[in-house]
Specification:
Chain A has a domain of 210 residues. Chain A contains 19 helices and 2 strands. The radius of gyration of chain B is 28 Å and the shape is flat. Chain B is mainly α. The relative contact order of chain B is 0.03. Chain B has one domain. Classes of the chains: A mainly alpha, B mainly alpha.
Chain lengths: 522, 116
């Protein structure tokens, strides 16, 4: 078991990667064997992720050096700096990897029935597993160039999956937009990496963090990295592509795309808090993030209320909720240089923002899955054509209600726990943040009530007389996420102590991240 | 395992809300049980009564999504006219926004650095 945990950082990336290529081979022989391989590999990866996260919480940061005699040997004999590929897992990476493991497993199970009538299923699962590998790679990598590589893997497979259902014309357009936006973002990340490499002769994040000077070029690189990752998360005003792409993907993939947005958010946090943590002008960058976060919350929700397409409606809500996370972590960043304010409310704001990422990772894919279930049964995403579906789709209705109450922050569901942490701490920073958050929450509930009434309420419509509840695997996929919501609802204190405080502390304590690789405490 | 979340200023216990919810549900169920017991399914009693008027078909009487919150959208018409303008659906416009935000962010960071 100890050896398994030692090698788990690379295994968590390698297993889905190998399984992706095996899937194409096994898929030629048997679809049942292929599906078993996909689910089994994701279950095993989830097990490894939980074991690794537990190890990180107990023993601290785990470093894995590829090609070294011992994985912990980050700097080869005779060298002054790390030159090998290094994976580094701290509380923040472990936190994001747990989310990714749960949602990718739920999405794969959901897909078994959701895409059962589509052609090219083997290619679908190959791309899904590649996307999983890319996501884990982004969360674990310790150097900027591999961050770019894994970002590209996740983005290209994501773009192909959006355009997977070729029978619909809008999927091609959505996939194209996603690929163009991802390519531009990836290119800017590569450009910023080049700027930093040219100055400091290193690609390793820890080494760069130790020597970075915050020159004018560094500031430009920071702007490039931050805005590129912000665009990938759908931050306003860079969100315009987001609903176009997310609304046309298969629902299981949309759920996963939400988490790739979180992975980009993780990358942005890693850049601000770790790479630039020692030198960053934290109040300025913090305020930029807060202002854009507030815009993201408000514009996202007001656009969502306006929508008539169920998946576009969900997409705009995903944008809006991402604003809460930016605001929470932005407040923490803004007071990073002031240890008194950080202790008074900064850490709680960051914990609230990170908590909201966890909650969002449960309820948003669940809501996308319910949207996919509606499309699966009715053949339309248009809410104006729906009605009375609660009579036929009782499980989907119940799961939609759970997701709705959670996203709206209605007590006692988990969305409330994270929002109360953000509201209370952000109020200390500036009351307008809390006021905006509450208004956005009210509008969220109002818009989900509207969608609920349109799709589920009312008398049975004659055109949906033959509609039946979605197949079991789709319900199981949704139920996994609903179970996550219930667990977080019941034990918010444990979640904060076990996962969220270590994650927030990992962001604040960038010295530990640097010294794990370089051996020097900055 | 406790159910309490310390928020720094107060505490939050979901169990209290769940207990309150269950108690309210029991009270609602109690009142419901006091209701009309002569109700018969699949008889004239279940038919909708609309002041003696003919009741429209299910599809016609369902309030569709386009009709909900009409007043809200009418009041915020100017806001929506403005906010819908950048949503062109054209990828070139989307990238222009990216270029603009990157440029503004870089300028802010550089100027803030000079003033520090």
């Amino acid at each position: 078991m100890a050896a398994l945990i030692t090698h788990s950082p690379i295994l968590i990336i390698a297993i889905p990667l190998v399984a992706a290529f095996l899937t194409s081979l096994i898929g030629m022989a048997s679809s049942r064997a292929r599906n078993t391989l996909v689910i089994a590999s994701l279950v095993f990866v989830a097990f490894l992720v939980f074991a690794l996260a537990r190890d990180v919480v107990i023993n601290g940061i785990r470093v894995y050096t590829l090609g070294a005699v011992s994985p912990e040997q980050t700097i080869p004999t005779g060298f002054m700096v790390p030159v090998r590929i290094i994976l580094e897992v701290d509380g923040m990476s472990a936190f994001f990897s747990i989310i990714w493991a749960i949602v990718s497993l739920a999405a794969a199970i959901y897909s078994l029935s959701h895409i059962a009538s589509e052609t090219g299923q083997t290619r679908f699962y190959t791309l899904l597993l590649l996307m999983v590998a890319g996501g884990f790679g982004m969360m674990f990598t310790g150097d900027l160039f591999n961050l770019f590589v894994f970002l590209e893997i996740a983005s290209i497979s994501g773009g192909a999956l959006i355009a997977f259902r070729t029978k619909f014309a809008d999927t091609q357009e959505g996939g194209f937009k996603y690929i163009v936006v991802s390519a531009i973002a990836g290119l800017m990340v590569l450009f910023a990496t080049g700027i930093l490499y040219a100055q400091y002769d290193s690609l390793n994040i820890a080494t760069l963090a130790q020597v970075i000077q915050y020159t004018t070029l560094d500031k430009i690189a920071l702007a490039l990295l931050l805005v590129a990752f912000a665009m990938k998360t759908g931050m306003v005003p860079l969100h315009l592509w987001f609903p176009d792409a997310y609304s046309v993907a298969p629902a299981s993939i949309t759920g996963m795309l939400v988490i790739t947005s979180h992975a980009c958010m993780y990358a942005a946090f890693r850049v601000c808090f770790t790479l630039y943590g020692r030198v960053i002008d934290s109040p300025v960058v913090g305020w930029i993030i807060i202002v854009l976060g507030l815009l993201t919350m408000f514009v996202g929700v007001t656009m969502a209320v306006f929508q008539k397409d169920v998946m576009r409606f969900m997409s705009y809500h995903a944008i809006s909720q991402l604003g809460y996370m930016w605001v929470g972590v932005g407040v923490g960043l803004a007071v990073l240089g002031n240890s008194a304010l950080l202790a008074t409310y900064g850490r709680d704001a960051m914990t609230g923002g990170i908590f909201h990422i966890l909650n969002h990772a449960m309820y948003k894919p669940l809501l996308f899955f319910t949207g996919g279930a509606l499309f699966h049964c009715t053949g339309t995403r248009d809410l104006t054509k729906m009605g009375g579906l609660a009579h036929k789709m009782k499980w989907t209705t119940i799961l939609y209600i759970i997701g709705t109450l959670s996203i709206s922050g209605i007590p006692p569901l988990n969305g409330f726990s994270s929002k109360i942490l953000i509201y209370e701490s952000a109020y200390q920073f500036h009351p307008i943040l809390t006021v905006t958050g509450i208004i956005v929450s009210i509008l969220t509930l109002a818009s989900f009530t509207k969608a609920f009434h349109s799709a589920f309420m009312g008398a049975e419509l004659p055109e949906y007389e033959m509609v039946k509840e979605v197949p079991k695997s789709m319900i199981i996929g949704m139920a996994i996420l609903a179970a996550g919501i219930v667990f977080i609802t019941l034990f918010p204190g444990q979640i904060v102590d076990w996962i969220l405080h270590p994650a927030a502390d990992a962001l604040v304590n960038h010295g530990a991240y640097i010294s794990s690789v370089t051996g020097v405490i900055p | 395992m406790t159910f309490i979340l310390e928020s720094g200023y107060a505490f939050w216990n979901p169990l209290i809300w769940i207990i309150v919810f269950v108690v309210v549900m029991i009270i609602v169920y109690f009142f419901r049980r006091q209701g009309q017991k002569k109700y018969k399914k699949d008889t004239e009693q279940v038919r909708i009564f609309l002041c003696g008027e003919e009741v429209p078909e299910a599809g016609e009487r369902h309030i569709r999504v386009g009709n909900i919150y009409w007043g809200f959208f009418e009041t915020l018409k100017d806001y929506y006219n403005q906010i819908l303008r950048p949503h062109t659906g054209i990828i070139n416009d989307y990238i222009l926004w990216f270029v603009a935000v990157t440029a503004v962010s870089a300028i802010i960071l550089v100027i803030a650095g000079l003033l520090r």
